[in-house]
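Blinded run. Sample ID left blank on purpose so nobody reads anything into the name before looking at the predicted structure. Input follows.
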Amino acid sequence: MPRDGSGIYSKASASFVANTTITSSSVNADFDDLVADANTARPITAGGTGAQTAAAARTALGSTTVGDAVFVAANAGAARTTLGAIGVVVISQVLTSSGTYTPRANLIYAEIELVGGGGGSGGINATTATSSSASGGGGAGAYSRSIVTAAAIGASQAVTIGAAGAAGTTSGTNGGTGGTTSVGSLVSAVGGGGGAGIASGAGGANGGIGGAAGSGVGTITMSGGSGAAGAGSPTVNTTGGGAIGGSSFFGGGGRATTFSGSGTQGQAPGSGAGGATAVGTGTQTGAAGAAGIVIITEYCSA
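Blinded prediction complete.
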């Protein structure tokens, strides 16, 4: 054989000597040896695989395979079909009003994320000339997210957007609780609590509690941020500390007021309202939280 047991190539005949006659048998032996080597599997030690088929080469190299496929396709779509693979198109939609979600016909699965409505902030009744009052900020709605198959979604699902919690009135009422946001029974998140109002006297009031993660439905659930408490005083009328609204998964709540002023509406979807402040005599209304939202990202076959 052209190569010895270690895979090292060696000449078939001895080296030629200068100024001596070269016989055809010696030359032919070397040529025959080269031809034989060129048509024999090159061993691994010489940079080959030591095999004559792809399967044997994988075995020699310690590789594995799940099958061989050789095909010709006119385009990428045809190639995916031949391989039994699919292309994926990703489409997102944002829902801010209640209605019906109807998935696309080629839906594979959808990621559904949502947040409940934010709580409103409390209102303030009349205070005395020598006092200051600050109502509590509203709590933010909880957040939920799940990945749901097309089979689980079915033909359609009802969508409910959690309403913003109402503003407290000048009677000093508490802010309203935010509503629950849901997509059928698949995913849901509750709203945040309303901030406390001040119906009589003066001082600060507590903020609303954020919506509880455990009260919703989802693979991932998070509670909303609670609203801050207001800072007022029954004996000081020179300043008041308004309360910030609770932050939701999507962003911050209503800002605080630093002197006399009504509450501020929640900013990001599902966030709570900022509290009102009254310095000296006067009344103030709270503000509404921010309504919930649903974001659906569909993964569809191409």
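Unblinding after everyone has recorded impressions. The chain has four helices and twelve strands.
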